[in-house]
């Protein structure tokens, strides 16, 4: 697909609706044709096809159209660098998102070789970005939901579906996480304590939901992009911290850095660890 395709697309103002973006027959044809022609000759990582030096297409049955809505919302309401969205649509059960390709390295690359000063610069930027995102005000009547008030997505949560919710309040969300179990004196004491803890209240904060070093791009000491917003949405304020703390083996070093850009919430982290022991791996 030529880079000139970008000039044919004009991104409208940000919207909070999980709707298609610049979805015309011509754009669909060009994107579907590009995938067919280029998927065997251009770099392809997971669900992302890099069609040129400045464009990539994220596509597949598990790609969420709401991710495009989220990135447009973040772009228009914060200074956080995210890929620009040129086109997004659903076709035969698959989602296709044509977006800008941000040039940068995952910050985990060479992290251990960075000076402490370099690490501090990067983490300071990240902290400011996350604080800016967490200052966003949820709309009236908002519950636990994605940016457009619809179901959330997280392939790491156990359950019959990768999509779940939306929920009218935090308590309904917690009831879902513990598979509908309510407080009962016959339950294990630890489980009873978990349910009591989950009955507390937390404010809603807009949450990326996967702040792994794999999803943060840097050029030198500058953060140039935060990517992979499919798990984002309005969640209780602890969710960003507890999800970030569940690092995968590729990302284990990152656990030591999380408290430097997110407010530590040790009680909530312990609560989540208990939930996972009883109700499945996160």
UniProtKB/TrEMBL annotation:
Record keywords, A-Z: Kinase, Transferase
Tell me the InterPro entries matching this sequence: AGP_Transferase, Aminoglycoside_PTrfase, Kinase-like_dom_sf
Q: Which GO terms describe its molecular function?
A: kinase activity
Tell me the domain of life. Eukaryota
Q: Which residues form the Aminoglycoside phosphotransferase domain?
A: 67-259
Extract the ranges annotated as region (Disordered).
1-20
Query: What Gene3D superfamilies is this protein classified in?
Result: 3.90.1200.10
Q: Which CDD domains match?
A: APH_ChoK_like (cd05120)
Q: Which Pfam families match?
A: APH
The name this protein carries in UniProt is Kinase-like domain-containing protein
């Amino acid at each position: 697909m030529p880079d000139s395709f970008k000039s044919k697309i004009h991104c409208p103002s940000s919207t909070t609706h999980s709707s298609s973006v610049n979805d015309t027959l011509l754009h669909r044809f060009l994107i579907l044709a590009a995938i067919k022609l280029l998927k065997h000759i251009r770099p392809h990582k997971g669900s992302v096809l890099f069609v040129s030096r400045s464009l990539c297409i994220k596509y597949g049955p598990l790609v969420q159209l709401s991710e495009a809505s989220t990135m447009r919302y973040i772009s228009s309401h914060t200074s956080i660098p995210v890929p620009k969205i040129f086109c997004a649509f659903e076709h035969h059960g698959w989602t296709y998102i044509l977006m800008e390709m941000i040039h940068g390295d995952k910050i985990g690359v060479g992290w251990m070789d960075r000076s402490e000063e370099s690490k501090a610069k990067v983490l300071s930027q990240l902290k400011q970005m996350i604080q800016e995102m967490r200052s966003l005000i949820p709309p009236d009547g908002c519950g636990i939901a994605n940016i457009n008030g619809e179901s959330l997505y997280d392939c790491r949560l156990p359950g019959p579906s990768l999509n779940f919710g939306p929920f009218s309040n935090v308590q309904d969300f917690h009831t879902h996480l513990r598979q509908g179990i309510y407080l009962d004196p016959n339950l294990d004491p630890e489980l009873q304590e978990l349910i009591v803890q989950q009955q507390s209240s937390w404010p809603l904060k807009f949450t990326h939901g996967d702040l792994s070093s794999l999803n943060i791009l840097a050029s030198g000491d500058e953060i140039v992009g935060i990517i992979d917003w499919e798990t984002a949405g309005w969640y209780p304020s602890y969710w960003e911290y507890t999800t970030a703390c569940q690092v995968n083996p590729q990302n284990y070093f990152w656990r030591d850095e999380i408290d430097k850009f997110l407010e530590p919430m040790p009680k909530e982290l312990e609560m989540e660890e208990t939930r996972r022991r009883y109700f499945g791996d996160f």
